[in-house]
Amino acid sequence: MRALPRVAACGLALLLAASFAAPSSAGRRGGSRWGADYFPNVPLTSHEGKELRFFDDVIKDKVVALNFIYTSCPDVCPLETARMANVQQILGDRVGKDVFLYSISIDPENDTLEVLADYAKRYKAGPGWVFLRGTEDDVTLLQQKLGLISEELEDLSQHNLSMVIGNQRTGRWMKRSPFENAHFLAEQIGGWLHNWSKPSLAGNNYATAPELRNLSDGETLFRTRCAACHTIGGGDVVGTVPLNFGPDLLGVTETRDLRWLQRWILEPEKVLAEGDPIATELFERFGGITMPNTGLSAEQVNSVIEFLRGEHQRLTEPRTAKAPVEHSARGSEHGEGHLAHH
Ligand code: HEC
Predict the structure, then answer these.
(1) Residue 12 and residue 174: Cα distance in Å, rounded?
(2) Ligand 1 centre from 118 Cα, in Å?
(3) Is the beta carbon of 65 within 6 A of some atom in ligand 1?
(4) For residues 144 and 41, what is the distance between their CA atoms, to the nearest angstrom?
(5) pLDDT at 293
(6) pLDDT of residue 222
(7) How far is CA 283 from CA 90, 253, 277, 293, 308, in A?
(8) What does R_g of the chain's alpha carbons equal in angstroms?
(9) Are residues 170 and 260 in the same domain?
(10) Confidence (pLDDT) at 151
(11) Whole-structure pTM over 0.85, yes or no?
């Protein structure tokens, strides 16, 4: 059955990213364990039709981010691909020069070069981000070698992670979660994997770093599962990259029926498959990209909706009586009385 490897590689990865320690120590010993004799040099074809070898052409002496996807995947692949697009955006023209991004299809049967080229275009893949296909056996072997297939997969809901970042030269490899903050991911790929020999990323500073306040569940979920594709009010949710693969969500809690929203966020693929008119219209408008099932529970869906509603209020409410109150609480001219008491 094809379903198993697909889902296993591309299902929802709820586990936290675990770095595997072995590669870095192997790297210090010269990297032979994770060198040419470790990685299979299998043939792959790029979405632009180039014939490549995995070791020689794809990873040798490079800093790379690799993920395994299939284009008809309804859940985690679109999110992960959008995240890869975020990383590409942050790293800018370093992609293709000292950082290389690869998305390898695990469904060579359906993901023909044409399909992959189209997918690459939809997700705005620039030079240095290459979609690849090979035979099913070769791709499975790559997944195994990269530690992305676990023997202990008992339950398909316990999916494995499908992104790996690494520096082949130093032998430093790490699994990443598709729900990771794109800025953090880009910093790891662009800085840490280069042993910080490159300057820190432009724009990646304290100003753009996520604030360390306590985030609500809804906001955390929005940042990790939604912000790779959606903005709220056109703006960047702090620490994310606005790319707008989907519609802006400002006011969606007002324009859509609550039950429709709940169901759509919970299982968009079903709503669309049923021919729901709103979903169909949106799908046509947003062409190639479909809203993925992000694996939220009903309760989590409600937290996200709550967050969207709050953002709508925050961003649209005129600045009312609240502002002067805050001001006077802080302002010393009104604070005399208080101070006098102490
Ligand atoms: C991979 C990109 C992607 C991700 C991730 C994603 N969406 Fe979407 N979303 C879309 C696209 C594209 C559409 C437009 C409909 C379509 O083409 O399927 C959409 C549509 C929507 C709509 C309908 C908007 C309207 O005008 O009615 C809502 C609401 C929504 N998404 C919420 C979310 C939430 C909440 C999350 C996170 C839990 C999320 N989306 C994650 C791409 C994404």
Answers:
(1) 18
(2) 20
(3) no
(4) 14
(5) 92
(6) 92
(7) 27, 19, 10, 14, 21
(8) 22
(9) no
(10) 55
(11) no
**pLDDT tens profile 155-166:** 333 345 578 999
Q: Is the CB of residue 283 below 6 angstroms from any atom belonging to ligand 1? A: yes
- 299 shares a domain with 232: yes
Confidence bin at 326 (pLDDT 50/70/90): very low
Say if residue 187 is in the same domain as residue 254. no
Output the residue whose Cα is nearest ligand 1's atom 34.
Answer: 226
Closest CA to 87 of 124, 58, 50, 40: 124
Residue 306: what residue type? E
228 lines ligand 1 (CB under 6 A): yes
Q: Give residue 302's domain range.
A: 217-316
Q: Is any atom of ligand 1 closer than 6 Å to the C-beta of 77? A: no
Tokens of 98: 């000292």
**Residue 35 pLDDT exceeds 70:** yes
174: domain CATH number is 3.40.30.10
Q: Which residues of 303-333 are buried (b: 16+ CB within 10 A; e: fewer)?
A: bbbebbbebbeeeeeeeeeeeeeeeeeeeee
